[in-house]
Amino acid sequence: MSTQRRQRRIAIVGAGPGGLTLARVLHVHGIPSTVYELDTSATARDQGGTLDLDEESGQRALLHAGLLEEFRPLSRPEGGELRLLGKDADVGFHIPPPQDGDGNHRPEIDRRVLKELLLGSLPEGTVRWGQKVKAVAIGAAGRPTLTLADGTTVAADVLVGADGAWSRVRPLLSDADPVYTGVSFVDGLLNDVDTRHPAVAELVGRGSMFALADEKGLFAQRNGGGRIRVYIAVKTPEEWSRSALNDPADPAATRKRLLDLFPDWDEGLRALIADSDGPLVHRPIHALPTGHRWDRVPGVTLLGDAAHLMSPFAGAGANLAMLDGAELALALAAHDDPETALNAYETAMFPRAEAAATQSAAHLVDFFQPDALRILRDAFTTMTAGGADR
Ligand SMILES: Cc1cc2nc3c(=O)[nH]c(=O)nc-3n(C[C@H](O)[C@H](O)[C@H](O)COP(=O)(O)OP(=O)(O)OC[C@H]3O[C@@H](n4cnc5c(N)ncnc54)[C@H](O)[C@@H]3O)c2cc1C
Questions:
Q1: Ligand 1 center–CA 301 separation, angstroms
Q2: Nearest Cα residue to 342 out of 377, 304, 303, 308
Q3: Yes or no: domain 3-80+100-177+288-366 corresponds to CATH 2.40.160.210
Q4: 52 marked among binding-site residues
Q5: Does residue 231 line the site of ligand 1, with CB under 6 A?
Q6: Which of 196, 316, 328, 329 has its CA at 20 to 30 Å from residue 225's CA atom?
Q7: Residue range 18-46: average pLDDT?
Q8: Residue owning the nearest CA to atom 30 of ligand 1
Q9: 7 class by beta-carbon count within 10 Å (0-12 exposed, 13-18 middle, 19+ buried)
Q10: 311 alpha carbon to ligand 1 midpoint, in Å?
Q11: 229 among the known binding-site residues?
């Protein structure tokens, strides 16, 4: 490793799965970096639900990070169970929980646990918490600079926007903005389900459950710690979603409005809304244009959602963010000239992201078709090629 590569100043904005994987793989190759993160700590907010890490992306990134073996005992292979239900709660398709040796290629891990794994593998002080990046620019010497909320300015040799959907770094490279997909989620959480909500626990099983009908969905997933997270998904104009489903001051009113959207659904399914314990979090789903890319700006690039935000219907966003982070680090470790590294990274990342975004946009349409249950059942049947109960 040349001194030149070790002495480069690498600034990463955002300590999500992508930014942390980048910092970790750089560290494995002896290259220091600094991650600027607006959250005040790793536990400042709920990190969200569970992720299934794909062998070809999320797990490959962990391999490059030297963390794959540590990941395995933290993961939940049984989370591979899948149930597809209609609004009457009849099971239309079922993949049972993988047994030992079944070879589940996408084991689940809670986002919080994944974040702890990545953070614990970084040298102290790599992540600067509570450092919101307010602005970015190309400085007089042609170096990217970022301005923090306290007014401090930092110059970097390489600036990476790993700062998610509403990236502050992206405008240096591209005019694209995320566009509302026509679908809104509201997230709910049920705690201690085996004791407090046994019927819901039974309905959802050990992994994921998708109930689909009437161009709506209730998507539930088992999280660690005896919790079930539910995404209540509706096709709706953004204005209505923002006014009707986003009332943190009055969760009871939001809950009632949501229940009114599912009037004739089985009571067991409606319990996912009625019995949720945590706050109901409004989450309109946005996406960047499929095939989003940019011309090279010296020293600056993007990864993960900042580069290719897509709807969650392909289950790929965090996996891709991690692979982006790993591959960018490998490119920076392989080349003295940062431009050669950034170019190599983007050349591989753009088509990969475009393929996943195309798939995710198609899945979004499928999930809200009048016969969504049949479409998904056929898709999963093809994928599993007869290995599930039907
Ligand atoms: C409901 C839902 C379900 C999903 N399910 C899955 C799934 O099952 N599998 C999957 O692979 N993907 C899933 N995704 C997608 C996944 O969550 C994202 O693709 C992934 O988190 C992107 O990682 P990232 O590191 O690029 O960005 P993020 O995770 O968004 O991290 C960005 C970080 O940057 C920080 N930040 C933002 N702005 C600034 C600033 N100005 N200054 C400093 N810090 C800043 C943020 O605080 C955050 O920590 C889902 C998404 C949603 C909405």
A1: 17
A2: 303
A3: no
A4: yes
A5: yes
A6: 316
A7: 95
A8: 164
A9: exposed
A10: 11
A11: no
Q: What share of the chain has pLDDT > 70, as a percent?
A: 96
Q: What is the pLDDT of residues 233-283, one digit of tens each?
A: 999 999 999 988 888 888 889 999 999 999 999 999 999 999 998 789 999
CATH class of 180-287: alpha beta
| Least confident interval from 150-159, 176-185, 376-385 | 376-385
- Token pair for 270: 């409606």
Ligand 1 centroid to Cα of residue 23, in Å, is: 16
- Does the beta carbon of 80 lie inside 6 Å of ligand 1? no
pLDDT tens profile 102-126? 566 788 999 999 999 999 999 999 9
Residue 92 binned pLDDT confidence (cut-offs 50, 70, 90): confident
**148: which 2 tokens?**
């923090």
CB 128 within 8 A of CB 121: no
Q: Which atom of ligand 1 is nearest to the CA of 54?
A: 11
| Per-residue pLDDT tens digits for 301-318 | 999 999 999 999 998 999
Instruction: Spell out the domain ranges in the chain.
Output: 3-80+100-177+288-366, 180-287
Looking at residue 13, its amino acid is V
Query: Regarding beta strands 158-161 and 179-190, do their DSSP bridges make them parallel or antiparallel, or are they unpaired?
Result: unpaired
Cβ–ligand 1 contact at 314 (below 6 Å): no
Reply yes or no on whether the pLDDT at 68 is more than 90: yes
**Residue 51 CB–ligand 1 contact under 6 Å:** yes
